[in-house]
Amino acid sequence: MVDDLIGCLCDNFDNAYCSNEFAEFTNTQQSNTQQSVFSNLAAKNNDNCAWSVSFLQMKGFQPKPDDVMCNRALSKGISKIELESDANFDTEHPAGESLMDIITLEIRTFEKELSKTSGFGFVMPTIKPYNSFSKDELKIVGNNFYLKFSKEPTASKNHNLTVTITFDDGEVYSDTVAVKF
């Protein structure tokens, strides 16, 4: 049984946008344009954080750049995720029908962190049924996610699972993976 599908969405690293403080801490070279894009994205998303990367220095722990990379967010939000199979999953989910009502999504959402007025902590993943995520929770997300099935298909067979992600700017990304249950 496949318990979960792992996804990774990466903005082109050459176009990484981050605060001046984060760029300095991670030794990331940024142009003035990239820093301006970050500032505009932060303003668009009501990001009022102080952007201190010292939060991991508690109890004598000296952070390295890789320790804070988990707090990277995509430069655009997710409007919708869709998952379907080319084979019958069960009687309620024939081939070509959405499987999202039996999917739990695990993703880092920055919505609660950005509603604060200062500080920036470690963003833990949010895990819950996909259909219970709000638009705001998917507005600013990390680049890794897991789609977990809440039930197994009725028969062991091969499925070509297609995941389609629609971003808030209308861009659509789709990929298909062969899975044997």
Folded structure, characterized:
There is one protein chain. The mean pLDDT is 78. The protein is built from four helices and seven strands. A hairpin with a 4-residue loop joins strand 6 and strand 7. The N and C termini lie close together (5 Å). The chain is of the alpha+beta class. The strands form two sheets. It has a four-stranded antiparallel β-sheet with strand order 1-5-3-4. It has a three-stranded antiparallel β-sheet with strand order 2-6-7, with no helix packed on it.
Order of helices and strands: EHHHEEHEEEE
Radius of gyration: 19 Å
Biggest sheet, in brief? 4 strands, antiparallel
Anisotropy-based shape:
elongated
Helix content: 10-25%
> What is the strand tally?
7
Question: What class do helices, strands and sheet pairing give?
Answer: alpha+beta
| Separation of the first and last Cα atoms | 5 Å
| Largest sheet strand order | 1-5-3-4
Strand residue content: 25-35%
Tell me the number of helical segments per DSSP (H or I, 4 or more residues long): 4
Poorly predicted runs: none
Global mean pLDDT: 78
Keywords:
alpha+beta; four-stranded antiparallel beta sheet; 181 residues; elongated; 29% strand; three-stranded antiparallel beta sheet
Short description:
Helix content is 15%, strand content 29%. By secondary structure, it is an alpha+beta fold.
